[in-house]
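note to self: dont lose this again. the chain is below, predicted strucutre after it. 421 aa total, dont forget to put it in the shared folder this time
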Amino acid sequence: MKKVLLMVGLFTLSLPIYSQKLDVSAEIRPRYESRNGYKSLMNEADDAAGFISQRSRINFDFSNDRLKLGFTLADVRVWGDTPTTKDNTGTTSVHEAWAEAILNSKISFKMGRQEIVYDDSRIFGNVGWAQSARSHDAFIFKYNDNKNHSLDIGLALNSNKEANTDILYDNIAGYKSFQYAWYHGQFNDFGVSVLALNTGVEYSYANSDEQKLDYYQTIGTRLTYKDSKFSYNASAYLQTGTIDDTDINASYISANIAYKLTSNISLAVGIEVLSGKDQDDTSIEFNSFNPLFGTNHKFNGWMDYFYVGNHANSVGLKDFNATLSYSKDKFSAKVVPHLFYSAANVYNGTELMDDKLGTEIDFTLAYKMAKDIKIQAGYSTMNATETMESLKTGDKNEDNNWIWVMMTFKPKLLSYTTPTN
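---
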């Protein structure tokens, strides 16, 4: 930090001049998909859907000793969804627009439209796979001792518009408000995270204009260990509270172990259990765990049969999976098989069905063509059971698969730092 001497009458003022940095980058990401049983089973009369979607972004990042700013302008579209002569489609939006005030070397607060990502993105994630991705309007108090401990305290309050009297929020964001605290501590090779989240959803009483705000809580922890060859993580969360005057009692557990077989090959195995509700259970209670704002495409198979805008308040899920990864230089490959089971009972009329839902196998390849150019491709297939067919409809005997190819261009357009002397 430099200082400049300013003469004002008989006085000399010493004013700080902060070192400043500006980075401007872009992203162009077109993706071709062939959906033939993506998210749900195909019917015999159905044909596969083929399309190209594209995300286009420009990112501005500014920082000095006391301030950080982030601004991301994004355009999301499907090729051909707009006439070639139309130039205003409403697809362009502000993905991020936030400011962070740095109070000292350990404490800051960040507010505005921003991505919120913690741990493995299971509860809070940016949903980066989706072309639109996810961001929140929030305030976050941040503490980081620059060594082993971090603490974030976040708040959000949503409304449809400016108003002079209270109006019902229609939960565009999925919630009216939230408050949370997230802590992470790193102790050599071990890490521990704790999250306590209070989420409020607004409703109107039946046959009344009166509003109510129900809250439910998500509380849990994530433990990690990692050395040069071996890594492990385990998570456990509970959900309680009420939503629309209905009590919530749900849970989540997961465990994953990975081992680096060679410098290029890794093997991992894992299990996830998300609680659900028996279909013959007539009690008035929500027992299905909700992963809330997580990057759900990352979990439970890439064909998105579970928790990607679906499978809410259902029979839950048990996911037994393995991952075989290979990477060398600019090339990487991965195969991920999943065995899916329902976590609660599924019935066909009065007959209890087998809890096995199906087997999914995901393949992906990636090659880094240049520093800022990457190509990826994937193929996934679902071998479903009658139980899956009962839950999802469609035909388990159809060839249910998904193919995609994606190019990502992420150049840095400008990077400028003011001289410090």
